[in-house]
Design a protein that fits this description.
335 residues; Peroxisomal Thiolase, Chain A, domain 1
């Protein structure tokens, strides 16, 4: 029974995995590309380096690597996967969906597959979507992935964005449970009135690709950083407090917060407002930058591989991204 008390099955994270491309781009490397400095990037964001995928790697290739690790940990054969959801803003193609390419790469013949786009909140939205399929008994398991090759949508002439992001993928396997562990609750929110503050404006039906759209650099990410920062702190704090209240828990009950990894100053501000010290946060943005939908599952996997959690620990995922979209999920660790 899940804690929402709606008669659904409980759902656990039975496996996690991640993949980071080998190539490291340091802040020093970036000073040769744009007018920036290691000092500015580290003090304004907390980022020292990020990973960049190879030209021959698309989001589905990163996703497949992460998925294989998650399936191994969960003891689930790829051919038994029933559902694949990929959260990404950098799909392999406009269509078909990236999840179908992952299906092909790993050989998950029985799965139905779709992508979910909620920018940096995409993994959390996908996790809750898949949880509902498993909880209702529609599927016996689900593979949920956040995968991004953001390096191919960054404007390498725009120092206000290109220093912030990196490539990578993280994946989890969901299974039903009767142990009482697992996903305790989720809150999600959106505000489309602020959609224009963080976009890739070109390449869709509003502004199709054309010589003009490319000359105007519309196919690259645009961000009003200061505005995004302000809303991120507010929405992440509110979402975290709401999910705790919904689950009848307080900040003291949280073992570890796994936040979206956009900026160390955002993490610090959320930590201060929640009254949860950053020593109880899983932070990897110094090494990987902002990986949008991949941020939370990669940080989760690194913490799991470092044996940071034991059964019964309470993990709080909290995200914010373009849309705007945001959300928070509470998980009681264990299978
Ligand atoms: O994942 C989705 C959510 N995304 C986020 O949450 C990102 C939120 N925003 C941020 O993290 C921060 O707003 C940024 C890191 C993007 C920018 O930090 P900031 O403290 O808000 O800086 P700013 O935009 O106010 O810029 C301050 C100065 C400006 O120069 P002037 O106008 O004061 O002369 C910028 O031109 O820093 C300059 N600047 C840079 N200088 C060196 C901006 N980018 C750079 C850079 N290197 N890379």
């Amino acid at each position: 029974m899940n804690r929402d008390g709606k008669g659904q099955r409980g759902v656990v994270i039975a496996g996690v995995g991640s993949y980071l491309p080998e190539r490291i781009l340091t802040n020093a490397d970036l000073t040769k590309i744009v007018d920036t400095s290691d000092e500015w990037i580290r003090t304004r964001t907390g980022i020292s380096e990020r990973r960049i995928a190879r030209d021959d790697q698309a989001a589905s290739d990163l996703a497949a690597e992460a998925s294989r690790h998650a399936l191994t940990m969960a003891g689930l054969a790829a051919e038994d996967v029933e559902m694949i959801v990929v959260a990404t803003v950098t799909p392999d193609m406009v269509f078909p969906n990236t999840a179908c390419f992952v299906q092909k790469h790993i050989g998950a013949r029985k799965a139905f597959c779709f992508d979910l786009e909620a920018a940096c909140s995409g993994f959390l939205y996908s996790l809750e979507t898949a949880r509902q399929f498993v909880a209702s008994g529609t599927v016996k398991n689900a593979l949920v992935i956040g995968a991004e090759k953001l390096s191919c949508v960054l404007d390498w002439q725009d120092r206000t964005t290109c220093v912030l992001f990196g490539d990578g993928a993280g994946a989890v396997v969901l299974k039903p449970t009767t142990t009482g562990h697992g996903i305790l609750g989720t809150v999600m929110g959106s505000d489309g009135t602020l959609a224009e503050l963080l976009t890739i404006p070109g390449g869709g039906s509003r502004t199709p690709v054309s010589a003009q759209s490319m000359a105007d650099r519309m196919h690259y990410m645009k961000m009003a950083g200061k505005d995004v920062f302000k809303h991120a702190v507010r929405c992440m704090t509110d979402a975290a407090q709401q999910v705790l209240a919904r689950c009848g828990l307080s900040a003291d009950d949280v073992t570890c917060v796994i936040p979206h990894q956009a900026n160390m100053r955002i993490v610090q501000a959320v930590s201060d407002r929640l009254g949860i010290g950053t020593d109880r946060f899983c932070i990897n943005l110094d090494r990987v930058g902002n990986m949008s939908a991949a941020s939370v599952p990669v940080a989760l996997d690194e913490a799991v591989r470092a044996n940071r959690f034991k059964a019964g620990d309470r993990l709080l995922f909290v995200t914010f991204g373009g849309g705007f979209t945001w959300g928070a999920t509470l998980v009681e660790w264990g299978v």
